[in-house]
Prior knowledge:
single chain, 320 residues, alpha/beta, Rossmann fold, binds glycinamide ribonucleotide
Amino acid sequence: MKSINKLQQKWGVGQVQFWLIMTTFALGGSLSGYLNKLILKLVFLDKNLAYWLIYPLLLTILWPFSVILVSFVTGQFSFFKGYLGRIWGRLSGGPSTMGSKMGSETLGSGHSVSTSPIHVAIFASGAGSNAKKIIEYFENKTTRIKISLIVCNVPSAGVLDIAESKGIPTLMINKTEFASTGYVESLHNADIHFIVLAGFLWKVPEVLVHAYQPGMKIDSSVVNGKVNTARGIINIHPALLPNYGGKGMYGSRVHEAVVAAGEKETGITIHWVDAHYDEGDIIFQARCAVDASDTPTTVAEKIHVLEHQHFAPTIESLLK
Ligand code: GAR
């Protein structure tokens, strides 16, 4: 079960899609075996040495075509197009495109250009105090990390004023298009390598999770003839996940629930983003006490202190 969960996270897919992918692998494998035997039967009269030499070769050639064919039926064409593309990229000596979300060590391995900037997009829906801290942390540093885009879904959000005052371009998004395309093309065109959710309240669609898996190619981002690769998506949550997370648990609602439950302690969690609310692998947590006199407002203040202190350095350590 654990390895199934890991694979789901790695591919950025939910349970239903995971089993559709597995079915496609199984049926594609059977189909290629069947076609292989059929073709060889037409060519060879008996199973001589040449038969057994050609058998694995033809099977290898037929397998991707069979899997793609079956993927149309199972509705997994876009997954297999990317999957086979990545295998082909590795076989032909291109950059590795199947990085893992599990650690910063693997994060670096898919990135082909070590001196070029790492462009970060911050997604935010509200005041943007975290976005501001992150921008300020990196703007006066000698670093490859550049906060290059603010993505926002609320026209009145304070984060837009921050972006304007810092001269950072913004991308306003709408729910329908976000759910269907994840704005992957716009993010690729803006050369974004890494995504930070800082108070962003919509669920990230699978298409975006998948496109920004560490190691996925960003075709429009070519430096010195080499294609850059994605570095992942992370989120900050104002509680100690897995507690007080999931759909509807955001901002003040989290602090209200923490106080109502009489918790003695709360904190922040920075985690990788998968296609489920607040469920990706945890990267970092910090804690603070909840005193008897605390209210949701004072807890929110304590949480913001922790977030402002730890978010930017965590991003920095992931992108080293
Ligand atoms: C932050 O506390 C962040 O953890 C929370 O929204 C706040 C945004 O504050 N995010 C969530 O609740 C996500 N589930 P900010 O706009 O001042 O950065």
